[in-house]
Amino acid sequence: MAEFKRGDWVVFAPGYESPEIGRVASVNVETNACFVCYTHGCTAAMTAIEMLEPYDPERFPDLVPDERIGHHRFDEGGCPDYDPGACFASCRGREADD
């Protein structure tokens, strides 16, 4: 089984639908799942680790990493749109406040 960490590019390829590229926001070893951002929004979807594989451009030539995936979740300086009343605890902007 692959080991993932925050920021890794991964592919959700369950075999019954088209593969989808995403970026790991966090890993939960207790539930054997990753929270993965698949869209330009900042919401991450819980995805079973066994449904993910590391991104390989040779295997998935039609999938291209898009730095906008995850909104500003992966920015070095945190999210400029961070709102403590609206963002979730896993948001990187909240981590800066702790």
How is this structure best summarized?
With 98 residues, the protein is mainly beta. The protein contains 1 helix and 5 strands. The chain has one helix at residues 92-97, and strands spanning 9-12, 20-28, 33-37, 45-48, 52-54.
What does this structure look like?
With 98 residues, the chain is mainly beta. 6% of the residues lie in helices and 26% in strands. The protein contains one helix and five strands. It has one helix spanning 92-97; strands at 9-12, 20-28, 33-37, 45-48, 52-54. The protein has a five-stranded antiparallel β-sheet, with no helix packed on it. A hairpin with a 7-residue loop joins strand 3 and strand 4.
Contiguous helical run count:
1
- The string of secondary-structure elements, in order, is EEEEEH
Strand line-up of the largest beta sheet: 4-3-2-1-5
Largest sheet: 5 strands, antiparallel
Topology:
Layout: E1 9-12, E2 20-28, E3 33-37, E4 45-48, E5 52-54, H1 92-97
Antiparallel strand pairs: 1-2, 1-5, 2-3, 3-4
